[in-house]
């Protein structure tokens, strides 16, 4: 085997990890060995939380729809039931945004559904 | 007015769960003023049997009072205790608790904020009346 000097390989490897960990608090962004652990944790948590994000956002949307529904005398579950029965399938929870930003349209949707019921 | 039912609606308004802009991480609820706190009622024998406990941290330092006695001593604390149990625990929950203002008697010092009567849409409370 020919002689191999390790050169700057190790430095580049460490720099890579420390760059990922920039902005972490205290030793987690400065020391290589703690930074490696924190990078691992951060990546794992990011993976898990990408899946959790879908759940938490849906919870928020449901809470908001519930708030508006109860103000007008029904509940979130009652409203969704009526929507499904009357084929207002377009209402993905993101259209809880409608309830927040454009309350008037949301009321119109509710009124239409109430008319179809009766 | 019943203690738990009142406390429950108060907690909902303080937390902001009746608003379509509800955000759980942010303090965006309403301030709530409660007056005539000494007129709060409980059903059954709770007036003489419901216990309020506190502990001073020292051994043997548990103190127990009944609803009745506490109502004569510091009636505001009854409502505060009930609502605090219904708000989230934690830093934000403690901040939310500061939005509750309870007063004995019908006067309160917040006329400058022009308070509006709280809209109660809880069926149990409406049926009570």
Question: What do these coordinates show?
Answer:
The complex is a heterodimer of chains A (118) and B (129). By secondary structure, chain A is an all-alpha fold. Chain A has a single domain (4-114), classed as c-terminal domain of poly(a) binding protein (Orthogonal Bundle), CATH 1.10.1900.20. Chain A is 70% helix and 0% strand. Chain A is built from five helices and no strands. Chain A has helices spanning 9-20, 32-71, 76-85, 96-101, 103-117. In chain A, helix 1 packs parallel to helix 2 (32-71). The termini of chain A are far apart. The model of chain A has no long low-confidence stretch (mean pLDDT 86). Chain B is α+β, with helices and mostly antiparallel strands and 129 residues long. Chain B is 38% helix and 12% strand. In chain B, the strands form two sheets. Chain B has a two-stranded parallel ribbon with strand order 1-4. Chain B has a two-stranded antiparallel sheet with strand order 2-3. In chain B, helix 3 (67-73) crosses helix 4. Chain B starts with a helix and ends with a helix. Chain A binds chain B through residues 60, 63-64, 66-68, 70-71, 73, 99-100, 103, and chain B through 17-24, 121. Chain B: One of its GO terms (cellular component) is cytosolic large ribosomal subunit. Chain B: Belongs to the universal ribosomal protein uL13 family.
Features:
heterodimer, A: 118 residues, mainly alpha, c-terminal domain of poly(a) binding protein, 5 helices, rod-shaped, B: 129 residues, alpha+beta, two-stranded antiparallel sheet, 6 helices, globular
Domain tally of chain A: 1
Q: End-to-end span of chain A in angstroms? A: 88 Å
Give Rg of chain B in angstroms.
16 Å
Second-tier CATH architecture of chain A: Orthogonal Bundle
- The count of DSSP E runs of length 2 or more, i.e. the number of strands of chain B, is 4
| Low-pLDDT windows of residues of chain B | none
Low-confidence stretches of chain A: none
How would you sum up the global shape of chain B?
globular
Q: What count of helical segments of chain A does DSSP give?
A: 5
- Under CATH, the topology of chain A is which? c-terminal domain of poly(a) binding protein
Largest sheet of chain A: none
Largest interface (C-beta under 8 Å): A-B, 12 and 9 residues
By CATH's scheme, which homologous superfamily of chain A applies? Answer: Ribosomal protein L20, C-terminal domain
Strand coverage percent of chain A: under 5%
Strand content of chain B: 5-15%
* Most strands sheet of chain B: 2 strands, parallel
Output the radius of gyration of chain A.
Answer: 26 Å
Please state the overall shape of chain A, judged from the principal axes of the Cα atoms: rod-shaped
Helix content of chain A: over 70%
**What is the highest CATH level, the class of chain A?**
Mainly Alpha
Helix-strand sequence of chain A? HHHHH
Protein name (chain B): 50S ribosomal protein L13, chloroplastic
GO cellular component, one term (chain B): cytosolic large ribosomal subunit
Keywords (chain B): Ribonucleoprotein, Ribosomal protein
GO molecular function (chain B): mRNA binding; structural constituent of ribosome
């Amino acid at each position: 085997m020919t002689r191999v000097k390790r050169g700057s390989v190790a430095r580049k490897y460490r720099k890579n990890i420390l760059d990922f960990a920039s902005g972490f608090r205290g030793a987690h962004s400065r020391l290589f060995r703690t930074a490696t652990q924190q990078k691992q944790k951060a990546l794992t948590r990011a993976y898990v939380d990408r899946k959790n994000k879908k759940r938490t956002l849906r919870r928020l949307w449901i809470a908001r729809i519930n708030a508006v529904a109860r103000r007008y005398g029904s509940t979130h579950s009652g409203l969704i039931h009526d929507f499904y029965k009357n084929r207002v399938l377009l209402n993905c929870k993101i259209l809880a945004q409608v309830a927040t930003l454009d309350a008037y349209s949301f009321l119109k949707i509710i009124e239409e559904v109430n008319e179809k019921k009766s | 007015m019943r203690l738990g039912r009142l406390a429950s609606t108060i907690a909902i308004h303080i937390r902001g769960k009746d608003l379509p802009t509800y955000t759980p991480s942010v303090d965006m609820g309403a301030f709530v003023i409660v007056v005539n706190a000494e007129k709060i009622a409980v059903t059954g024998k709770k007036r003489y049997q419901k216990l309020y406990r506190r502990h001073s941290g020292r051994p043997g330092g548990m103190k127990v009072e009944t609803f009745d006695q506490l109502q004569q001593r510091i009636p505001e604390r009854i409502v505060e205790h009930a609502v605090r149990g219904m708000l989230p625990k934690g830093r934000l929950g403690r901040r939310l608790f500061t939005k509750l203002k309870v007063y004995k008697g019908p006067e309160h010092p917040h006329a400058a904020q022009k308070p509006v009567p709280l809209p109660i849409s809880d069926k149990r409370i409406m049926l009570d009346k």
